[in-house]
UniProtKB/TrEMBL annotation:
Biological processes per GO annotation: DNA-templated transcription initiation
Domain RNA polymerase sigma factor 70 region 4 type: 127-179
Family label: Belongs to the sigma-70 factor family. ECF subfamily.
InterPro entries: RNA_pol_sigma-70-like, RNA_pol_sigma-70_dom, RNA_pol_sigma70_r2, RNA_pol_sigma70_r4_t2, RNA_pol_sigma_r2, RNA_pol_sigma_r3/r4-like, WH-like_DNA-bd_sf
Keywords, comma-separated and alphabetical: Sigma factor, Transcription, Transcription regulation
Gene source species: Streptosporangium roseum (strain ATCC 12428 / DSM 43021 / JCM 3005 / KCTC 9067 / NCIMB 10171 / NRRL 2505 / NI 9100)
UniProt protein name: RNA polymerase, sigma-24 subunit, ECF subfamily
Upper lineage: Bacteria, Bacillati, Actinomycetota, Actinomycetes, Streptosporangiales
Length: 187
């Protein structure tokens, strides 16, 4: 346990969570929600799916905190391994589902009506996005790319680029406005 007045470490907090202490879990949640979501977002790529994975992992931490063993590694490693495994499982599950649908489609001999149209539309939209990204300044493009393709939060982007958070927010806002205008998206 930490010295008096010192904030407990993640390992100590997990020990308290194992005893059912909600306040300790709230602190664990505050410390780990961002990193768990960031890892899930990088693996899963889809924001909604990553949010679900992060929620599942944090619920699992609440339920299984008593299984954490300090002698086998850090608490952060334990939770992030859980998050990585759950994220990979989600990707594999989605791929297996897509493979099954494709197999059924091939067996039926029918080509999905909009399949060709969807592929063409997706390619055209991708080219349009790349062209519009090319119209941003290097600084804006870098921030937007890290946030939207890298899955990083604004504070994480600020840390990676070693730039104040306010500067990142300004770059993102200006970059997204330019992208919206370039792509012709209405408000």
């Amino acid at each position: 346990m930490p010295a008096s007045g010192e904030e407990p470490g993640l390992e100590d907090l997990l020990a308290q969570v194992a005893l059912g202490r909600e306040q300790a879990f709230n602190r664990v949640y505050d410390l780990l929600a961002g990193p768990v979501f960031g890892l899930a977002r990088r693996v899963v790529r889809d924001r909604a799916q990553a949010e679900e994975v992060a929620q599942e992992v944090l619920v699992e931490v609440w339920r299984t905190a008593s299984r954490y063993d300090r002698t086998r590694g850090s608490a952060l490693s334990w939770v992030m391994t859980m998050a990585h495994r759950r994220s990979v499982d989600r990707v594999r599950s989605a791929q297996a589902s897509a493979d099954r649908e494709e197999k059924v489609s091939r067996m039926s001999g029918e080509v999905a009506y909009d399949q060709v149209s969807e592929v063409v539309t997706t390619r055209l939209e991708g080219e349009r996005v790349r062209r519009c990204l090319g119209g941003l300044t290097d600084l804006q493009r870098q921030a937007v790319t890290l946030a939207y393709y890298g899955g990083y939060s604004y504070p994480e982007v600020a840390g990676l680029l070693r730039v104040p958070l306010g500067t990142i927010k300004t770059r993102m806002r200006d970059g997204l406005v330019r992208l919206r205008d370039c792509m012709g998206v209405e408000r």
